[in-house]
């Protein structure tokens, strides 16, 4: 398992005349097996941090390293490969393909990575999120919580080093949110994967080991376990 490191990462949008510094020299690490929540007001740079750390966007300056790999040194093709093979994503809106079954959705990252999905890998990932019996269902036949669990299985099926979750419980009720977070926590603990989750919800953040609070493109606070919904 690899640690993800950000060294003095800045991201500036726009040109000199009208520029926005979305990230201002961020240095931090996300260790293998750790679960970090990123909080902070709207516009503070949380999404930009997630995108730069996940190799979806390139910083203006600074370095992002996954283990020994400097993402800045990879060309687009290699960066895409790295994302497909070593990084998983979970979104607030699940982003499942509605025409495909749950199992086919889970198999997608393996297909995109050019691997032939072994039935065991897809079934194993579905079983891991408690949906072994739902593989043949389409997203429209599943509840919101079940859809997010399919999305989680899809994010994990390649056994990525790091999983990025952008408001993963934003569309779920509180009981379903807790189920999804408990699963995320369990999977990560079992496989020593790194999770970085953006959330506005203190209850969700309390599932993490560490909370980073962002304001104006900087990390202004770092809270560590034990965390409670009241302390974050
Ligand atoms: P958050 O996720 O905390 O709401 P963002 O990372 O989305 O914050 O945005 C940080 C800042 O960068 C904001 O001022 C936002 O308007 C600006 N920003 C984000 N994306 C872009 C973009 N593609 N072009 C220009 N400005 C952007
Ligand atoms: P064992 O250690 O008993 O061989 P694993 O825990 O590695 O088993 O895997 C058990 C099942 O869970 C396998 O079918 C595998 O496909 C699935 N699995 C393993 N790792 C992950 C993961 N990170 N995310 C999702 N599914 C996984």
Order of helices and strands: EEEHEEHEHHHEHEHEE
By helix and strand content, what is the structural category? alpha/beta
Main sheet specs: 6 strands, mixed
| Low-pLDDT residue intervals, each spanning 5 or more residues | none
Number of helices: 7
How do the helices and strands line up, and which of them pair or pack?
Blueprint: E1 4-14, E2 19-30, E3 35-39, H1 46-53, E4 61-66, E5 69-70, H2 76-86, E6 87-91, H3 102-112, H4 119-128, H5 144-156, E7 162-166, H6 174-191, E8 194-198, H7 202-205, E9 210-215, E10 218-224
Parallel strand pairs: 3-8, 3-9, 6-7, 7-8
Antiparallel strand pairs: 1-2, 1-4, 4-5, 9-10
Helix pairs in contact: 3-4, 3-5, 4-5, 5-6
Residues 120-121, 124-125, 128, 156-157, 159, 187, 191 line the site of one adenosine-5'-diphosphate (ADP).
Please, could you describe this protein's structure?
A hairpin with a 2-residue loop joins strand 9 and strand 10. The model has no long low-confidence stretch (mean pLDDT 94). Helix 3 crosses helix 4, helix 4 packs across helix 5 and helix 5 runs parallel beside helix 6. The chain is α/β, with parallel strands linked by helices and 232 residues long. The strands form two sheets. A six-stranded mixed beta sheet has the order 6-7-8-3-9-10, with helices on both faces. Strands 2-1-4-5 form a four-stranded antiparallel beta sheet. The two termini are 28 Å apart. The structure holds adenosine-5'-diphosphate (ADP) (2 copies). One adenosine-5'-diphosphate binds next to helix 4 and helix 6.
């Amino acid at each position: 398992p690899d640690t993800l490191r950000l060294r003095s990462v800045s991201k500036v949008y726009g040109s000199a005349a009208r520029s926005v510094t979305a990230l201002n020299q961020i240095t931090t690490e996300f260790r293998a097996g750790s679960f970090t929540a990123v909080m902070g007001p709207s516009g503070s740079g949380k999404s930009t941090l997630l995108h730069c750390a996940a190799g979806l966007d390139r910083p203006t300056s600074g370095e992002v390293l996954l283990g020994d790999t400097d993402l800045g040194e990879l060309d687009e093709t290699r960066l895409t490969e790295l994302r497909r093979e070593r990084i998983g994503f979970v979104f607030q809106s699940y982003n499942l393909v509605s025409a495909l079954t749950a199992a086919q959705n889970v198999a997608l990252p393996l297909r995109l990575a050019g691997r032939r999905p072994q039935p065991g890998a897809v079934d194993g990932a579905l079983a891991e999120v408690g949906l072994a019996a739902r593989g043949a269902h389409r997203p429209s036949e599943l509840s919101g919580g079940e859809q997010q669990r399919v999305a989680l299985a899809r994010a994990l099926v390649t056994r990525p080093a790091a999983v990025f979750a952008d408001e993963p419980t934003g569309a779920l009720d509180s009981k379903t949110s807790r189920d999804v977070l408990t699963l995320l926590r369990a999977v990560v603990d079992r496989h020593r994967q790194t999770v970085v989750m953006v959330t506005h919800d203190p209850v969700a953040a309390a599932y993490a080991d560490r909370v980073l609070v962002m304001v104006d493109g900087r990390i202004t606070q770092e809270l560590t376990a034990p965390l409670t919904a009241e302390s974050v």
